[in-house]
């Protein structure tokens, strides 16, 4: 089927409701004889052409659902993809991988172009178990249930029902009593859904543990390291956890003392540990947000602004908050269209501004990849690379925050907050990673033990300098608000690793702005078939999260913050 089923921001060039026709197309790939290297390369092209059509349609359906979790027709289409199409694709992906790996011509393919593909597909052949397909379908159903619950979560505020992101935005309020009220309202909201969140997570942990056992692993953590084809080990992660605790947390404690002093408070409570030193939210209307970000991007590089304006004009941005919209923010690629889509559900706040800039780093990376190499394939997506350009974009625009904060003191406060965020991205996702190591290597843990462990790890890292007395329960259950724990397990440490690279990019920018921006664009358009270290090198930074690297970047970050007088 080649006609466009529905004109929208994505192209639906294949009818996923016609399951028999889809299966016939996939089966035809399995029937193709491969009698030479050129046959194999042609087969790979045909496979890719079909795969990206399926991918764009499914991505569009997923985004449609996240944009409106309460629409029955949209939900039905999305669930059809998850419950019918996804299992079919899993079954045939395994057969296609076997056909590829068993071809006598595989090792005659160009290693630079196809080496990573071969490695990933060989890994998938080893991991595939047919009995895991229904478990993975159930896993996705639970994730959908999580999105529905969070999308429908509202909080009473001054007599009005408000979306949850609105309450989160109030943590930036200058009035400490408002921040405290918002923090406690969030705790009350989580308490209302706690039993549902526990039930979902309990079942996810057991499902994922069984998936790992079926594939021959002791636990889901070890399984996921192979699934992700990580270029570093479990021990490397534990070492990174320790290095950050040793070198970043003491620096964070010193900076927290500075923030506490500026606030003029006797105790530094969780509602003080937010972006609350600017007088007002950076914008009130989404159109104002987009105008300002476009200008900031244009002052950095004309290509950045060109892509943003194109997305704005073509319905590829959904940035406002509303009831029924899934929480969080993300950027996703549309491989047939050659476009990217940015989704965000945030009320006006400093964080929502930074989140959009962050996602535009992903978007620019996506457009550069497409223009240089065509549609990027799933096996090429490594988040340690992707997050380098999102964090990098934040830091390249650090000196342009005066567009939203024209008052000099507000501008300095905004810069400090962005750099404070850099600190939080060094320890926050990393502590989330450690939490997941514990969850999945202790799969029989109870909900109570999970809350206690989350509090313990939070206190070791981000909440180390914070007075948490009397709030142990609220903090312990706050893991429920982290989408990554539910929908993208073990996607956390990549943020912290890539932040070390982004800080190096900032260091380069301070020395030579033009060269740093060109290096950013060169790396963002680099061949993704390379190793992570090679791509980082093209960006002018090092893929290094050893103790010396962590210590050096921690000192650099602390100095940059202190230099903002």
Automatic annotation (TrEMBL):
Its cofactor is Zn(2+). One of its GO terms (biological process) is proteolysis. Belongs to the peptidase M3 family. Residues 172-551 form the Peptidase M3A/M3B catalytic domain. InterPro entries: Pept_M3A_M3B, Pept_M3A_M3B_dom, Pept_M3B_oligopep-rel. It holds the Pfam family Peptidase_M3. It comes from Bacillus timonensis. Transmembrane segments: none annotated. Keywords: Hydrolase, Metal-binding, Metalloprotease, Protease, Zinc. Binds 1 zinc ion. This is M3 family oligoendopeptidase. GO terms for molecular function: metal ion binding; metalloendopeptidase activity. The lineage of its organism: Bacteria, Bacillati, Bacillota, Bacilli, Bacillales.
């Amino acid at each position: 089927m080649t006609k466009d089923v529905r004109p929208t921001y994505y192209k639906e060039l294949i009818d996923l409701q016609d399951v028999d026709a889809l299966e016939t197309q996939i089966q035809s790939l399995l029937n193709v004889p491969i009698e030479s290297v050129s046959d194999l390369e042609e087969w790979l092209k045909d496979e890719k052409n079909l795969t990206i059509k399926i991918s764009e349609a499914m991505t569009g359906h997923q985004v449609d659902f996240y944009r409106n979790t309460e629409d029955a027709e949209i939900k039905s289409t999305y669930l059809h993809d998850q419950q019918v199409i996804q299992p079919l694709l899993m079954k045939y992906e395994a057969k296609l991988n076997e056909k590829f790996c068993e071809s006598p011509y595989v090792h005659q393919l160009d290693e630079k172009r196809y080496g990573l593909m071969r490695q990933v597909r060989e890994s998938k052949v080893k991991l595939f178990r047919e009995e895991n397909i229904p478990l993975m379908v159930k896993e996705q159903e639970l994730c959908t249930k999580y999105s529905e619950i969070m999308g429908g979560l509202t909080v009473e505020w001054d007599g009005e029902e408000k979306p949850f992101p609105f309450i989160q935005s109030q943590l930036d309020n200058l009035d400490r009593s408002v921040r405290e009220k918002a923090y406690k309202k969030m705790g009350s909201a989580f308490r209302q859904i706690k039993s549902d969140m526990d039930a979902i997570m309990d079942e996810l942990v057991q499902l994922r543990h069984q998936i790992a056992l079926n594939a021959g692993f002791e636990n889901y953590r070890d399984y996921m390291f192979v699934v992700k084809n990580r270029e570093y080990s479990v021990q490397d992660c534990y070492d990174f956890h320790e290095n950050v605790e040793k070198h970043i947390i003491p620096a964070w404690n010193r900076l927290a003392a500075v923030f506490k002093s500026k606030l003029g408070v006797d105790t530094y409570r969780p509602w003080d540990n937010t972006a609350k030193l600017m007088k007002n939210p950076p914008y009130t209307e989404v159109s104002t947000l987009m105008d300002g970000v476009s200008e900031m991007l244009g002052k950095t590089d004309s290509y950045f602004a060109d892509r943003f304006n194109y997305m704005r004009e073509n319905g590829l941005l959904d940035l406002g908050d509303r009831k029924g919209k899934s929480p969080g923010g993300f950027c996703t690629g549309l491989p047939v269209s050659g476009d990217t889509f940015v989704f965000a559900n945030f009320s006006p706040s400093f964080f929502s501004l930074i989140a959009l800039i962050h996602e535009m780093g992903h978007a620019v990376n996506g457009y550069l990849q497409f223009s240089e190499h065509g549609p990027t394939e799933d096996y090429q997506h490594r988040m340690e690379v992707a997050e380098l350009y999102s964090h990098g974009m934040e830091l390249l625009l650090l000196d342009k925050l005066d567009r939203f904060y024209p008052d000099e003191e507000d501008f300095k406060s905004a810069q400090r907050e962005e750099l404070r965020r850099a600190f939080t991205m060094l320890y926050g996702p990393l502590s989330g990673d450690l939490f997941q190591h514990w969850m999945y290597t202790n799969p029989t843990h109870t909900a109570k033990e999970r809350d206690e462990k989350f509090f313990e790890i939070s206190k070791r890292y981000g909440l180390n300098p914070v007075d948490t007395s009397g709030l142990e329960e609220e903090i312990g259950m706050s893991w429920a608000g982290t989408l990554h724990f539910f929908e993208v397990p073990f996607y956390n440490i990549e943020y912290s690793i890539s932040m070390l690279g982004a800080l190096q990019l900032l260091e380069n920018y301070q020395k030579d702005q033009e060269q740093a921006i060109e290096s950013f664009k060169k790396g963002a358009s680099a061949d993704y078939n390379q190793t992570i270290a090679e791509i980082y090198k093209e960006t002018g930074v090092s893929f290094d999260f050893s103790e010396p690297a962590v210590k050096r970047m921690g000192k650099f970050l602390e100095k940059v913050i202190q230099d903002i007088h």
